[in-house]
Structures are given as structure tokens and as C-alpha cells.
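Each letter names a residue; C-alpha cells follow underneath. Both lines appear below:
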Amino acid sequence: MVNLESIPWKSINFKTGHEGRVGNFSFTQDKKGRIWVAFDNFKEGKEKVIVRYWDGRKLSPPQQIASETSCCKPQITSYLDGVALVWCSKRKNQWGLYCKIFDGEKWSEKIKINRKNEDALSPSLGTNGDDLWLAWEAHKGRVSAIRAVTFKQDKPQRKIKVSKGMTYSYRPAVSVSKEGDVYIVWDSYFKGTYNVFLRVYREGEWREIYRVSSDYRWEFMSSVTLDSSQRPWITWLCLTDVANADGVIDQWPTIRCTCFEKGCHKVKVEASRDLVSLCHGLLPKVYPSKTSVWGYLGRRRKPMIMMDIKGSIWLLWERKEIHDGSTIKTTGLLCAKRFEDEKWSEEVVLHRGHLLYTLPTYMLRSKNEIWVCTRGGLETLGDLHILWREWIDVKECPVFKSDKWLGWRFINLNKKRKMKIRRKVRVRGVEYKLYWGDIHCHSALSADAEGELDELIFYARDKANLDFCAITDNDCYILPMSNSEWFLAQHYSKKFNSSRRFVIFSGYEWSSRNGNGLPYNHRTILYHTDDQPIFRWIEPSSKKIEDLCRCIENTNGIMSAHHQKWKLCKSERERNVEVCSGWAVYIDDPKWIHKHLNRGYKFGFIGGSDSHRRNPGLCGALTGVYARSFTRKDIFEAMKNRRVYATNGSRIFLDFRINDSFIGEECQTTQSPKIKVTVEATKSPVKVDIYRNGEIIYTSTDPGRKIHVRFIDKECPRGECSYYYVMVLQNNRVPEYPSNVAVAEGNRAWSSPIWVYR
């Protein structure tokens, strides 16, 4: 534990917790010295944008600026004699960007910023107090560009496309100099990697785009500030693919930073150097001992940068204090490095005990103080706090000492991508193709996880080389998913779903913890289309599994149970069960699964990573799907009809039939069932076990990678329904790891059952 008793901070609690679930927030100081906080709020199916200010003596009453089904991501900054506020709102089929200006006495009318044919997301404000600039993501079809606009009084001027010539651009940040020069940074995805870019507006014209980052690594999530000479300093996150000797795959996270001379024609600080390792709290330890990696309610991957009144540049970021600490009990550290005399200081800790440390969009520079806005710890999780104190000499701060992360080696997954060999089978004259996907992944929309939606989709498609996936964030784990977050997940599913290239489903995880004494009774909900509702377990109409089933039966969705235990319903929407994930191979202890099959429940076997480590498709569980074509419609049809099988990460080919019936089907016969199994493993030797009613009835092995089994079950019971399934084991070592850590490519596969009526 870090001791910071000698570094006291002043604080004011904005007491936002009673308003409902507080999501995104932003804060600023106006020219009168008042501290303004804007935040979005979700309660009882409605969302609001609320502002409060503190004048140094008392808090103003909360002021509701917007109240709709969806309004989120507020950004507030000082502007002229008051403040400017922007936020996003989903109305009908469009994400709109809206603005209000407070002139010191009253708020202006609401102004819509974006075009009618574009969606607007991720707004960022920049100001020098008098000049105001707004940048945002403008989505149209699959293209996302960065647009910007300036204001005269409360009137937006002509909109500019900043990221010209780029297809996928995200997360803009803006800084405005004293002279009114504008610096906009963002990240763009191209040819399998993210890079950071900068564009400058000076003397009435836009300059050329500068590439800030340097190589094949994923470099994104940038921030920008200006120093006393009005030079731009830019910091960003850098991710490098890593693997260990067992085949666990992850990312090595670091922070990079650079500075340009004022004309942006020369780099002052080297951009390719890793300044900070973010492994603590993010990357599991694998050698010499293995450690767990759990979730965190803060923000571990967002570097920030600012200048103090003396002209020193400070690089700041948040860490989870205890590397393998509990998700709900572990709070954060505000860490920093100072750049002075042409060098960076050691890493020091400035504050501990809060979450989501956030810098102001604008502050008066009359005092040598640092100000941050945070979310409180567990006791005051919904409350926003303003913290401040005089800037600290780094020599007076405790040094953060990180352990060594041994056993990892750098790899390049972009180079490891292989051409897909599309396996085909023919069943009763119909040709099916085999597609691979991960339909249980988590992003930053889950309270305890991180990873941007675009980031995970590109990872699944381009690094894991999947055919399909679903990002299924929790409806409510600690904090509920808001309407806007659900709409955002649907937006990205619709945006990136593409027949013949990559299929993505809208979905979420119903995260109930009231399963009649079970520790959990979770479901993955997948929808055929991107316009379906979310039913949260905290809502009365969908609190119990029976209620959820009734709700889903009125949609086009299907459900899959997961974790070690669950309670099934007699609903035709209960289609599959997750038999393995990145947390565990649940079918290793098959009693619970066999118990429900023996009771007459019918469900397919799927694998879903349940990844909280931002690596969908490479976290130890996959689903193989036999579909007629590479479309969302046909892959969904295959999952609905249980034409699926599970693996713990490897792409083992498995063809299982009884008579003329295929995986997931039912078979009527008066004769002894004729069983056919064809397997092509990825490693040798290979073994096949055939199960009937929970017991192994036949085993076959082969020293190679291919095996063909032909078996007649003469002991199949008469007068009842029996279920059969196949397990494949290939002989590569797959050690177990704690928590959500798993070998990417495992050694087993399990077919969905075939039910035989004899």
C-alpha cells in the first residue's frame, strides 16, 4: 500500500450518487473561478445530462440540461463569460451531437451540430477561454471520420473534415493555443494497426496531417496539451502482442509521448520510446509464478498530459493499486512523471483511493495547483469528487515500484494471420461451411472491463482471424448498462457486420445473481437484428429467468447459459450452453450438464471466451458453426438449430453424425444407431470419445492428426430418447491458469449432442 499521508489533498464531494448511476463526466473552471462538473445519469430507464458548479463556498443545485431515453458523454469547458456543454443523444436511428452555451446568466437554446446523414460520437472540446473548438467522430456507413467546428458566440461555424483520406478514425482530442492555433489528435486504423495523427489549424488554414506514432504496434487513445512555448505534447497508449511458452496471448501495454516544435516540422522528443509500463494491474504474471488478473472499476489505459504553472510537463495515468486485487474493493493510484531539464523523472504516486482520475478541460493559471475529478471508492461509488492541491515536487512523492513481468515474448499477430481453409460438409444434400467465432466477449461497456468497441472488433477480425463474434457486456454488474451504452453496442454491430468478411451480433450478458441459491444464473443473449431491447436483471419485468424467457420470446433473440451452474427454463429460446470459456472448462466436471440432459433438456455446446482481457478469439474458447453461407442470417440460424460445437481455442475439424442426422439434430430409428465421426486435429496424436447419456461408450485413437470412426451402438436403449456427443482430445499440453487467463489454442473439442429416439 502506498503511503500518501504527507501529501494531503483538499476535496469537495459533488454528491451525485443519489441521482442514479453516474456514467461519463467532465469538469472545467470558468473565468470567475467556479468549478463546473457535467455528468450523465441513468435511472429507471431514463438518462439525463446534469451540471453543477462550486463557487468556492457552496455547491449549486443540480441543473438538468437534457432528459431523454438516451443522452450521454457530456463535455464541458470554459467559454467567454460562461461555459460550453456538448453531449450525444440517440434519437430514432441517429446519434446526434448537441450543444448549449451558458453566457454567465442563462443557457442558450439547444443546437444540433452534426449532419443529418451522419452519426456523431466521442465529442472533445478545446479552448483557450475565448476560442472554442469541438471535434467528434462522424460515422457514415462503415466510415468514421474526425470532424471539427469552431464557434462565434453561440453559433457553430462551417464544419471541417479533419481526417481526410482515412476510413476508420476515432477518439479526437483538442488543444487551443493562446494565439488561437488549434491542435487535434486522433487515432486511425489502417492495414491491421492503429496510429496516432495530428493536424494543426494556424493562421486561418489547415496544415497537412502528421503521423505521430511510429510502427506496427497498436498506438491509440491519445491526449494533447501545449507547453509554455505553445508546442504540442502528445501522449498515447501503445500495445504490443505478447505470448508465453504455454501459448497464452495478451498485450504488453505502455505509454509513449512526444513533443513537436511549434511549426510541427521537427520532433523534439522521440516518439518510439516506451516511457511507462502499464503491466501492473493489466497483464497477468506467468513466470515464475502465475497470478490472477481481475477487473477494475477505474481506467487503466488512458494517459493524460498537462503543464504546471512553472512550465513543466506532467504525464499522468491511473493504475489499479493492487495488481491482483478484488474487482469491487481495489481502488486506484494517480501516477505521474515530470519532464524537466530535458529528462523525465521517476514514476511517482500523487494520490490513491479513488477511480477514473480525470483532468480538467480548462483551468485558470493563477495558482500552481493540480485539479482532478474522480469517482469515489466503493463507499461513495456514485459520487464525483473534485480534488486539488499545490503541485508537488516529485522528490517528495513516493516512487511507484513495479515488479518484473517475466516469461513474455513479443510477437506480431498481424504477420501470423493465415488464409482460411474453409471446411465443408454435406448433410442430406445441403452444403454447410464451417465458421469460427467467439460469442462472449466484454468491452469497456462492462463496469469491470476495458477495451474499446472498435478495438475489440478489429482484434477479433484481424488478429484472431475470426469469422464472427459478439461483444456481450453485462446488463448490470456493480453498475447497470445504460440505454446509450446498449444503443452504442448495437451501433457498432450494425456498422461492422459485413457478409463475406466479418459477422458481428448485437447481444449482452444477463448477469443475474438470484438463481435460487446458485452463485449466478447468467445468459448470453444474441439477437438476429440490431434493433432489439435490453432486459436487465435488476428490472422487475426481467428479474427472474422465467421472466427473461418470456421477454426474449417476444424478440428475435436466443439465449445461452454459462458458468459452472445455471437454472434452465422450458423455453425454446434456451438453445445452447457454454461448456468452456477463458475462465474454466466447465464440462471437465460434466455432472451439471449431464444432469440437465438426462432430464430431457436439449441444448447445443458452445465455447465463449468471456474475455475481459481485450483478446476475443484468443482467450481459450471458440464456437464452430456449420452454416449455409457467410451471413449473419445463416450463422444465427445455425446457432439457433444447435449446428455448433465448442473447442477450448483450437480449430479442430469435427463432423459427427448418427444415421442421417447431424450435430444438434434429433434422430428417429428402429435400428441400432450408426455413428460416424470425422476429425482433423491441429496437433497429433488424437483421441475420440463417444458419449451416450453421460457415459463413454467408445474410444478411438490415432497417432496422426486425422481420425475416422464408424461405430454401431447395438446397446442403445429402446423406448426412450438417448443423447450422444463426441469429445476430441489432441495431445498438446494445456496447463491451467487462474482467473480469465487461458492458453489461446487448446487441445479439445465437444460436439453438440444428437438425440436418438429408438
